[in-house]
## 1
Amino acid sequence: MSSSMSFARIVGTGSALPPKLVTNDDLAADMATRQIETSDQWIVERTGIRQRYIAERGFKTSTLATQAAQRALADAGVDASEVDLIILATSTPDFVFPSTACLVQANLGNKGAAAFDVQAVCSGFVYALTTAECFIRAGKARCALVIGAEVFSSILDWNDRGTCVLFGDGAGAVVLKGSDTPGILASELHADGSQTHILAAAGNVAYGQVTGDPFLRMDGQAVFKQAVTVLDRSARSVVAQAGLTLADLDWMIPHQANLRILTFLARKLDVPLEKVVITVDQHANTSAASVPLALDVARRDGRVQAGQLVLLQGVGGGFTWGSVLVRM
Ligand code: UT7
């Protein structure tokens, strides 16, 4: 690797959604058959979510991840054989093992790249992107595929109205390449393992059966408060690391969990809401997929343009959070 290639740059993006669109009204009608009450009005007022895409039973995370990866490679004009690192963030892997990253590698026809999964729930993509950047800057990789992909519907309790209305399925991917001009300007990752209880799917497969609770459980208000606090702090920190100010940002792409979180965050940071990419209304919360999915949508519809300064932020179970400041 040439010594001048000391930075990492995003050179392509892609995303994928399962075919089935489920509106709030669809969901309310389905839940009503089980005597569970919800409404489009409640969901929109509390979350801003209007619809989500839900995979059919048996549909695999690796399938969505492969589609997103293929679109990112095509966008970058990079052949799968050039990729020497695949990092995939998910909390809904196809299997206990092998990693979903290895399954995607096989689907892409790549041989020999290092491939592994990252588990940081809704912060997963930001964790994976930062990890890939470190590989590239250390000269250990030249061309990385970084993917966030989830079939989150598979770990939802469809009888728990406090959680099941909030999430959806999807995938997003970026191609990250060594570059002599900076793409990623600054990043930071954090976790607080004392907060595991506020958001968890505390089950596992062991001794031939499911042990513990296989469904996502959440203390919504605790997560809400933590999310706004850590995203605010982390945004200020990475922007300062890069010697820039919040006013320099062209776009913020925080984890798409809830429109109220995005609105609070923008207000705390004094960033106009017009500079926040919002896709949670369309996709709901797709966990590790939410940030790369929103980035790809915003690039393809012309919002995010080459040369712009974009802040990517993740937050979620663990408790985990992190930010990556990118020059596109
Ligand atoms: O990646 C991070 C993922 N986590 C998040 O993004 C969660 C962050 N938290 C939140 O977004 C919000 O806390 C929620 C949207 C989850 C909940 O909003 P809230 O304003 O904190 O509502 P709440 O939990 O205080 O519930 C208010 C009421 C309750 O009824 P009572 O006790 O006042 O009679 C709930 O039972 O709303 C009820 N409720 C619902 N009603 C209709 C809860 N879920 C629903 C529902 N439809 N789906």
Note: Residues 38, 42-43, 46-47, 122, 161-162, 165, 218, 220-221, 223-224, 255, 257-258, 285, 316 surround oxa(dethia)-CoA (CB under 6 Å).
## 2
Amino acid sequence: MTDRFVTLSQFVLQQERDHPEASGEFTGVLLDIALAAKMINAAVIRAGLVDVLGATGATNVQGERVQKLDVFAHDTIMKVLGSTGQLAVVASEEDEGIVPMPDDAPIGKYVVNFDPLDGSSNIDANVNIGTIFSILPRISRKGHGTVEDCLQAGRRQLCAGYVLYGTTTMLVYTTGDGVHGFTYEPGIGEFLLSHPNIHTPARGRIYSANEGNYARWSTGMKRYVDWLKQESRATGRPYSGRYVGSLVADFHRNLLYGGIYLYPGDGRNPDGKLRLLYECAPLAFIAEQAGGAASNGERRIMDLAPGSLHQRSPLFLGSPEDVKECEAFLAGTHEGANEERRG
Ligand code: AHM
Ligand code: MG
């Protein structure tokens, strides 16, 4: 907790004053996303009382059941972003193609890629869910934005963040100058600075993975997780297994406590489950800014140039020493990877 009350808008303005060299224009987009987040939060906390729980009956571009709150969150963000005049184009996990700005709105210089409601399978059980967003500069020169504007490598991001709807609702973001967290105070309708300059521990004692997929994992992946469970005082093993199944919640906890989130490719889904644009790249930017790391097992997530809007990528995310160790297991170069063979 800080010793002063600072709202998100005050903080953003202060950052602009401290960094006059940086184009502060996109920070307006960030505040618009915060507005949408308040509206989504209002629906999430009343979800059992109003008719927003359950599935719509449709499946999305990912082949997943669309929940009513998914649609509500997507529409709310679109309504807010569509009228700002600062955006050229947006892409949403819930839409197959890019979403152009309305014809009657001015067209701006920025691009937003977002996952309106991450962890949708948890909605009906009142478990944490989240929104993830990424702001990029457009690369096309004029007119409506194009798909190429959305398909940029993570290192081109100007801002990335997430909103965690939960016990308390939080908004966490980076513009490349550290990671800052704000807690929502519903009584006044403001996000207040509660976690300035978040740093993630160099090593954690938590791993987060859907181990139901273990049988389909590669040998390196299996050996890594088996190794995390072995007793070793020197390296703080065994690790604790913690898995909510909402990426934002699992990431947020590990960001604060340290640890590693794993969603590898497997025999059935070689690229894993998570989407590069809407999930992996924004969280990679935040992780790196907090001193953490994000990899697809071989390469830095931030360097991956997406070939399509809904491209998936394996994801290894969290404390830098843990991510490095995991990469070594996957490459078969970690000494623990060969223990079994020698034994
Ligand atoms: P979603 O965007 O459709 O909600 O899917 C992404 C979610 C992540 O939040 C979570 O980490 C992962 O899918 C869980 O997958 P699984 O159910 O395979 O463990
Ligand atoms: Mg998602």
Note: Residues 93, 115, 118, 279 surround magnesium ion (ligand 2) (CB under 6 Å).
